[in-house]
Design a protein that fits this description.
About 35% of the residues lie in helices and about 20% in strands. With about 210 residues, the protein is an alpha+beta fold.
Length: about 210
């Protein structure tokens, strides 16, 4: 079956045994699987392989599981590329042939096998890296999350608010300047009119005939 998208958690909890002492540590999800890799649980191993598959550009599915004869618990799990194996088209005699959807299986051999140890740890016992088909890197990683979209909208709204405030201040400054220009123009016009009036008075006096001429 196809895996569901995982959360953006880049670390997977695993179990380590060094020098006879065991302890919990975090496995970097960016590293490649390898045989002998240890995990604290089957879920942690699957989460790690799913994250690895998403990064490489393929989907996974659980191919097989093995249960304990004693208590029925799962003791091994084999995960593989979703293009593992082939679809077999069966047809019964005497019945109408049903048109089947196109197969997505291509016999890919990429797989990831983990088994449970006596102490409850899970170890990678087999890992096949290579695929026999092109891998497609998902573009979802480059898409912004809803939180990132909301944050960007808030940032743009704040920028728009600041721009509107700046525009309002510029309009007020322009209005003040235009008022000053109008007042200065009106004052200049009165001054010009006064000068013209005085010039006309002088000219008029010069044109009057003298009493003694």
């Amino acid at each position: 079956m196809d895996t569901e998208p995982l959360a953006e958690d880049k670390n997977v909890i695993a179990d380590s045994s060094i020098g006879g002492d065991s302890g919990i540590y975090e496995v970097d999800a960016n590293q490649e699987p390898y045989e002998g890799m240890l995990f604290e649980s089957e879920e942690a191993a699957k989460a790690f392989y799913d994250e690895y598959a998403k990064r490489q550009g393929f989907l996974t599915r659980i191919v097989s599981s093995r249960k304990s004869e004693r208590d029925g618990s799962i003791i091994s799990r084999r995960l593989a590329c979703n293009k593992e194996g082939f679809n077999v088209n069966s047809q019964r005699r005497g019945q109408v042939r049903i048109r089947k959807r196109e197969s997505k299986r291509e016999g890919c051999m990429a797989m990831f096998l983990v088994k449970r140890e006596k102490h409850g740890r899970w170890v990678v016992t087999k890992f096949v890296r290579d695929h026999n088909h092109p891998l497609v890197i998902s573009s979802e990683k480059g898409r912004p999350t809803p939180d990132e979209k909301d944050r960007r909208i808030r940032e743009l709204s704040s920028e728009l608010h600041r721009a509107n405030q700046h525009l309002a201040a510029c309009r007020e400054q322009l209005r003040t300047f235009m008022t000053y220009v109008e007042e200065h123009t009106e004052c200049l016009s009165r001054t010009v009119e006064d000068v013209v009036h005085r010039i006309r008075e002088v000219e008029s006096k010069d044109q009057k005939p003298s009493q003694y001429s």
